[in-house]
Predict the structure.
Amino acid sequence: MNKELALIITLGVLSYIVDTQSAPNNYYNNSDDNIKAYSVLLFHHIISIYILLGFLTDNKYLLYLYLLITINTVIHWRTNNDKCFLTTYVNKKFGIKETNTFRSIFYVCGVKATGNFFITLWIIFGWCVCIYKLFIYKNKKKSNYTFSHFKRDKDMKSRRLLRQSDY
């Protein structure tokens, strides 16, 4: 498994643990029927961490996946009254008020007024970094190679001309 992906999953699991352990009593009721809801909550935390940090990777496949997931997430929020279907599902399964938001790592750390607007701004920043890494930085590397290759050819031509002038 990719080290960066393993780190994202680990941070997602830690976010899940902090959320479930710091929640008020009976916020996530502990009945056995909610194993699926706990699994969805864990998945939500992993995806949340990936949305927040996925653009930091240098793995091009994870960067393309980041673009795909974040674009779909923003479209989903805009078409679903700024609500995530995962949050709605978990809230319904645990009997939490529909108006309660997802307890992301920001929420758990005390930044309660984040909302989708702040996350959307962060995602736009992530898109800029991601696009830079995928398209601009990659092309800069190629152009530097081409330039150094051109320079080396130019130097070799200059040497040949010098050798020819000796005769």
Summary: The mean pLDDT is 81. The chain is about 75% helix and 0% strand. The helical segments are 3-22, 35-53, 60-79, 85-94, 105-108, 115-166. The chain has one domain: 3-166.
